[in-house]
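# nightly structure sweep
# worker-07 picked up a monomer target from the shared queue
# config: single-sequence mode, recycle default, output format = structure tokens
# input follows
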Amino acid sequence: MAHSKATFSKIAAPPKSAAEVDLRWSSFPYLAAVMAMVTVVSIFHVWSRVKVVDLNLQIVDANGLFKEQQQENKRLKVEVASLKAPARIEALAKGDLGMTMPTEQQVVVVK
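# output follows
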């Protein structure tokens, strides 16, 4: 068996026609527009997710502040109740102001 060497002639590819080149470049603006739209949509998506996370953090802070304010309100209500106690008012009137309970002659009934 003899080795035969196959020789391939070098054939250059046929030159591309101007229509093929124009077709390739004519689709470039559409491809660029699609890429720009995908970029804008991606940026909007990331921005919206960051905004959602930020708003969730604000909600958590507001809830914490609300609970603190509720506790302060309860504490102040207890303080008001203790300051309005009749026994405390009577003790202040007798001790600090030197007041006494009125006698029967000092009481005037208005009709």
